[in-house]
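Long-time lurker, finally posting.

We've been working with Plectin-1 (Columba livia) and I want a structural starting point before designing mutants. I don't trust myself to interpret raw outputs, so I'm hoping someone here can both generate the structure tokens and explain anything notable. Sequence follows.
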Amino acid sequence: VEVPVGSMKGRTMTIWELIHSEYFTEEHRRELLRQYKTGKVTIEKIIKIVITIIEEAETKRQEKLTFSGLRAPVPASELVESHIISKAQYEQLKEGKKTVKDLAETDAVRRFLHGSDCIAGVYVEATKEKLNIYEAMRRNLLRPSTAVVLLEAQAATGFLIDPVRNRKLYVNEAVKAGVVGPELHEKLLSAERAVTGYTDPYSGNTISLFQAMKKGLIVKEHGIRLLEAQIATGGIIDPVNSHRLPVEVAYQRGYFDEELNRTLSDPTDDTKGFFDPNTHENLTYRQLKEKCIEDPETGLYLLPL
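Top reply, 14 upvotes:
Generated this for you. Predicted structure of Plectin-1:
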């Protein structure tokens, strides 16, 4: 029999070898042999049972080796390929010496699975009030253009943030909850595709933000702004695998290139896409984030006004 999954995948083994493998307990073995000897089951039926048991065991094992990503589960094997966890850590997981929870809580892994915080809202110094970005715009504390790019950056890095209630929401949820107005729904859904992926009109495949820029599906300046926000909050998002990537891996997967890296590491006024409402200068997302204060209650970044 050819083994379809697991550590022996692709190998041809006898039924005898398989029922003596790690997937079967002594009881299992005895019961199968008893049924076969008494003629209750045919050899074909035994093959079916054996394969099913192996497949179910592997499914359970994979579930134990799965991390929660930005929008979908991420298998541990994908994190090894992305150089986010080492082969040694992967082996420890498989052997049960480390749990998914242990690794997910390390800074390195957390950063690539969920990212660090974006600019979540504003802090009004005069009234000592926390506001979400949309509310600050409604009260004329932020210009509409400033508010929209900050909200787009939130959507493109994973979630819209309600800093008052400390909630992270998908765009649809945020509109329903009144955290942003319906007039921004389409615009923010478009920015959220930087996380969920764009559809290539020619192949129908899911492609990344950078690939969508290259194909002219989004305006370059707009794309650069969203990419810069992703990098400033932990790394470029791989929409296919639902997590962030180290820069070298983003290069390999075609989600980033040298030219764009140069543009972002040496920003000119053209690529400084974020307006500082206090000093009235254009900044990069990272520079604006550095001007934020950390909310002592939630740890979220708030822009003081």
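Before you design anything, note these points.
The first strand starts at residue 66 and ends at 68.
The chain has a mean pLDDT of 89.
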